[in-house]
Write a structure and sequence with these properties.
heterodimer, A: 49 residues, mainly alpha, 78% helix, rod-shaped, B: 236 residues, Four Helix Bundle (Hemerythrin (Met), subunit A), 7 helices, 0% strand, disordered N terminus
Chain lengths: 49, 236
């Protein structure tokens, strides 16, 4: 079965949002990990916003 | 070139960061909604043309991110300021995301228009090489423990990698390719120009937000690395 043009357009936009929001998710988790590591080794994590 | 605690205080408050992210993605959503609903079906491709609004800006952001890598890699080698290395590394990661997205969107567009997902065309191949260079750049940063050495080697790879950008751009003019000539507002039918501009601006905002956030995290990671080294030496 050959997908219609609209299917490819929807797939392109869905992939764009998936990748961009996926990267936001990665940034959020990396940020949390970095804050945790910094708090653990420096003892001033609570000062970080 | 230490990352001191005071430099971490210039990072955005969390709530501001969340609102900025929300604003950037809202602008992107609005630009996409406008361009999808206002551009007519193209003569040859029909509605497939609408993939241009995500594929072409993603490619431009790839080029721009790697230009940032080039500038800050050169600045690092010249001035040896750690911040320049961290900005280059942040831009390289974000550029790799946009580069991968460009390749994937090109494949989705290529299948219904060319009949194949992939072909070893000069534009596609040079874009893939660019992607692999920056994946290598990011892998290199993970392998090297010494921060000074990591920054110097990364800067060298970043400069070499960015030199590939003009090759990617010019590939469709230098070689006979299946890929069309570069799309830009000057080569487009006016019906599609505004949509392309709006999407490019929206994705530029997203890219700036990404690089900024990644840079803040990189500073935090570096500060934690330094604090761990100090603690290991008993200098806390």
């Amino acid at each position: 079965m050959i997908a219609s043009n609209e299917t490819f357009v929807i797939a392109a936009y869905a992939l764009t949002w998936l990748v961009l929001l996926g990267y936001v998710w990665r940034l959020v988790s990396k940020d949390g990990r970095a804050r945790g590591d910094y708090a653990r080794v420096s003892g001033r994590g609570e000062d970080l916003r | 070139m230490p990352t001191n605690d005071r430099s971490l205080d210039s990072s955005l408050p969390r709530r501001t960061g969340i609102w900025l992210a929300f604003a950037c993605f809202a602008v992107l959503g609005a630009a996409q909604a406008y361009s999808i609903s206002n551009s007519p079906a193209e003569g040859d491709m029909g509605h497939l043309q609408k993939i241009m609004y995500v594929h072409v800006p993603a490619a431009w952001m790839t080029f721009l991110a790697f230009f940032v890598v080039l500038v800050f890699s050169v600045l690092y080698l010249w001035r040896r300021r750690e911040a320049y290395d961290l900005i280059a590394a942040s831009a390289a990661e974000v550029g790799a995301v946009f580069n991968g997205l460009t390749l994937a969107l090109g494949m989705i567009w290529g299948r219904p228009t060319w009949g194949v997902w992939w072909t070893w065309d000069a534009r596609l191949t040079s874009t893939l090489v660019l992607f692999l260079i920056f994946i290598g750049y990011l892998a290199l940063r993970g392998f090297v423990d010494d921060p000074g050495q990591r920054a110097r080697w990364s800067a060298a790879v970043g400069i070499i990698g960015a030199i590939n950008v003009p090759i990617v751009y010019m590939s469709v003019m230098w070689w006979r390719t299946l890929h069309q000539q570069p799309s830009s507002p000057s080569t487009l039918d006016p019906a599609y120009t505004l949509g392309l501009r709006l999407n490019a601006i929206a994705l530029l905002l997203v890219m700036i937000y990404f690089i900024r956030r990644r840079y803040e995290i990189a500073r935090l990671e570096r500060a934690a690395e330094q604090a761990a080294q100090m603690a290991a030496m008993g200098g806390r």
